[in-house]
Design goal:
single chain, 397 residues, alpha/beta, Rossmann fold, 6-stranded mixed sheet, 5-stranded parallel sheet, globular
Length: 397
């Protein structure tokens, strides 16, 4: 599989040209190493290799000496790549010193922020380093031949490169087993491994739904505070994204205040939930909704930090799957597994537009071949046009 240009490519290149150092976070196999290997560097250190990691754990100051020995050519300090820097968080003290003395620029990659937050350099070098997040391939980077393919297999670059469906299934299963069930649990120092494994399966199966901590706790057999800690582990390890509800309203007093969680990739979610490839008809709509939510989150990370993705739900009435919140200006997005959208499908969007004056337009994502106007300010959009919807409706910075 040839290299697929990533949306972040230009942003990383621009930041480096300004002399900035970078943190590039992302779950395993999202393509961080492939991306940074395309950038010329004076020194590369892969802390994913045990023997390399051991050297720097014994002597973090070794990095300073290696950087000081580099030849300095040009106006910018030499570029150093530290892959999987969370493996040796003590190196951040050396990195801070070298950046402050303008001895080097750094690209640091990491598949977890958990150890970095717990380490001596828990501040992640604020003001010194630009932070980026690399997700699985978005719709702007890879368009699947069929919507069902991305809902079943996700969009990790390494998985997409596998042609045979049975091999894809095996590779996804290996990812879940070796990465989620072993590495995450080991890093998090979870004592009850059986409970965490059961939690992971349930969290994957119920992804995209309103979280009921006490209900999950009863199913797993642990305290609800432990379930909350487990979700925090998934967030820290970049496996799950938490989505908060929109809770402000002039007229509705019972808006849902509990969060939703989405696992970062649809294929990983399916294997973690131990679901097969035979999907019930009613389930496709739920998976479609989750995938749209992931696309919105990925887009929001790339274009503007001021954008937040939320959802809106009144337990006694309407709900909208996703809300694009740009500093209090709202764009509601509903998701329907239909090829023939009708005005009735947009009734909750109409309710939301009537409720919030800062919301001017609403969109319904569906499988229709062309756009369909469903009412004043409401448009049904084919799923393939989601990137242009985001650009046109909210704009990019």
């Amino acid at each position: 599989m040839n290299y697929i240009n990533r949306v972040l490519d230009d942003s990383l290149t621009h930041a480096l040209s300004r002399g900035r150092s970078l943190f590039l976070f992302g779950a395993r196999q999202t393509g961080k190493t492939t991306l940074v290997n395309r950038i010329s560097a004076a020194l590369r250190v892969s802390l994913a290799q045990p023997e390399v990691r051991l050297r720097y754990e014994k002597a973090p100051g070794l990095l300073r000496g290696e950087v000081e020995a580099l030849n300095v050519n040009g106006t910018l300090p030499p570029l150093v790549v530290l892959d999987e820097v969370q493996k040796v968080p003590s190196l951040l003290d050396e990195v801070q010193d070298l950046i402050d003395r303008r001895r080097a620029r750094f690209i640091m990659t990491g598949s977890s922020a958990r150890k970095l937050r717990r380490g001596s350099s828990a501040n992640l070098l604020p003001g010194r380093v630009s932070v980026f997040h690399l997700d699985p391939l978005s719709l702007r980077e890879h368009r699947p031949a069929r919507l069902e393919d991305v809902l079943l297999d996700g969009s990790l670059p390494g998985i997409l490169a596998v042609r045979d469906p049975s091999d894809r299934e095996a590779d996804l299963a290996a990812y879940v087993t070796t990465y989620l069930e072993e590495e995450i649990r080991a890093e998090a120092a979870v004592r009850n491994l059986g409970a965490f494994a059961r939690f992971l399966e349930l969290a994957a199966a119920e992804a995209g739904g309103i979280v009921n901590l006490r209900g999950l706790a009863a199913d797993v057999g642990v305290a609800h505070t432990t379930i909350a800690a487990y979700y925090q582990i998934l967030e820290d390890c970049l496996i799950a994204d938490r989505v908060e509800p929109l809770t402000t309203s002039a007229t509705r007093k019972k808006l849902t205040r509990s969060d939703k969680y989405l696992l970062f990739d649809m294929g990983v979610r399916r294997l973690a939930a131990r679901e097969g490839r035979r999907i019930l008809p009613a389930r496709w709509g739920q998976l479609f909704e989750q995938w749209v939510g992931l696309e919105l989150i990925r887009w929001s990370r790339m274009v503007a930090r001021s954008i937040r993705i939320r959802f809106w739900r009144d337990p006694d009435g309407p709900e909208v799957d996703w809300i694009i919140d740009r500093d209090g200006r709202y764009t509601p997005v509903e998701v329907k597994w239909t090829e023939t959208p009708a005005a009735a499908d947009a009734r909750h969007l109409r309710c939301f537009l009537d409720e919030y004056r800062t919301a001017e337009r609403g969109y319904l994502l569906c499988r229709a071949p062309r756009k369909v106007k469903l009412g004043k300010g409401i448009l049904a959009i084919p799923w393939q046009e989601l990137p242009s919807l985001l650009h046109d409706s909210v704009g990019e910075e």
